[in-house]
Design brief:
single chain, 383 residues, alpha+beta, two-stranded antiparallel ribbon, 8 helices, 12% strand
């Protein structure tokens, strides 16, 4: 018999019937084989003569009573099993149908669908919770995807529109291809090139867990190197850059990725610090973490924007002005690379025009770094 053709209700009813039949047959066999001899022995001990009419009628009464008892018990059990099966199967079918319908809706793109816990046991409740979490995650991914495409279109549209307007003006003779026009065209093409490079860097950063190549590095040396590379830009804008390095700054990390995080934070601080301002980049070990801090006395960030500054393309009106040249993904890259190292990044600000502090905390392995005479890459015992 192919059980796959039966629904859940029929399967439950069939299972209950098999249990009842097995129980009834077992009870009847035991009662028939064990009951009469024991009953007959008790009659003899009570003084009833062997093969007498009294013994015969007593045994008949016993057999009839046993048969009636078994029949009544099986009937009551069958009716109870029937009602229990119908009740449970209805609840199960309703819950499964709800999950199935919700899954179909999610497959069609309706990610806002949720299912209620069926309250049929923790297994079913956990299934409903897992489904809701999956739908919520898919909804978040879809929302991020739509926002990403919208932001990409917006970021590309502006420089392309400027390029098109200038080229049309040159073609119509309104503008000549002089040095200012060429400079403007180069600025807009450079903006597109920087934006494409930033998007590619973000994609690589979000996959950095597979490309991180750690080694023993001196975080202080990286900080000084990045600071030196950005010194001209800071001097041009007349922003003072102060680098503070603690005594113990050796770290098991990817040198290139760490420099990228530091550079993004210093670039962000420079863009949002006015001329005459100050930026401090400090590195020090605190307990089992290496702490990187980039503090400025620039624009600052309002409290409602703080939870969103690491989101791709997010801009507050004052803190993420497109005219300052930022693509809106530098901090997202820093966050992805920090988390790829097993660390975390945070931001703090007392409000607009009160400055901002970004803090990166990376775990420091429990083992001691190799001395200068033994610089071979040795994986820490904690990794």
């Amino acid at each position: 018999m192919n059980l796959t053709k039966f629904g859940m209700r029929r399967r439950l009813l069939l299972a209950q019937s098999l249990v009842l039949i097995a129980g009834g047959v077992t009870t009847w066999v035991v009662a028939s084989m064990v009951g009469p001899p024991l009953f007959r022995d008790h009659l003899h001990m009570a003084g009833v003569a062997h093969n007498s009419n009294e013994q015969y009628h007593a045994e008949q009464a016993y057999q009839h009573a046993t048969a009636i008892s078994i029949a009544v018990a099986i009937t009551v059990a069958a009716i109870t099993a029937l009602f229990a099966t119908v009740y449970l199967s209805r609840r199960l079918q309703h819950s499964i149908a709800e999950v199935s319908g919700a899954a179909s809706a999610v497959a069609e793109g309706h990610y806002e669908v949720r299912v209620a816990p069926p309250r049929l046991g923790h297994e079913f409740d956990e299934m409903a919770t897992a489904f809701n979490q999956m739908a919520e995650r898919l909804q978040s991914v879809e929302s991020t995807r739509r926002q990403l495409f919208g932001d990409l279109a917006h970021e590309i549209r502006t420089p392309v529109a400027v390029l098109e307007a200038y080229l049309e003006a040159v073609e119509d003779g309104v503008k000549t291809l002089d040095q200012p026009t060429i400079a403007m065209l180069r600025e807009q093409t450079g903006r597109l090139v920087r934006f494409s490079a930033d998007v590619a860097a973000l994609a690589q950063a979000e996959e950095a867990h597979a490309t991180i190549t750690p080694e023993w590095v001196d975080a202080g040396e990286i900080a000084r190197s990045v600071g030196a590379a950005m010194a001209d830009r800071y001097d041009t804008k007349k922003v003072a850059l102060n680098i503070q390095v603690g005594k113990e700054t050796r770290l098991w990390a990817d040198r290139q990725r760490l420099a990228q995080v530091s550079g993004n934070l210093l670039d962000n601080a420079l863009r949002h610090t006015p001329p005459g301002g100050h930026v401090t980049f400090s590195i020090d070990r605190i307990n089992d973490e290496m702490i990187f801090k980039v503090s400025d006395d620039g624009d600052g960030i309002a409290a409602q924007h703080l939870p969103h500054v690491f989101e791709r393309f997010y801009r507050a009106d004052f803190a993420r002005d497109r005219r300052r040249g930022g693509s809106g993904i530098g901090l997202a890259i820093a966050k992805a690379l920090t988390e790829a190292h097993g660390g975390h990044i945070s931001v703090a600000s007392r409000g607009p025009d009160q400055g901002t502090t970004f803090t990166v905390a990376l775990p420091v392995p429990a083992s001691t770094a190799p001395h200068n005479g033994d610089q071979r890459d040795r994986v820490p015992t904690s990794s």
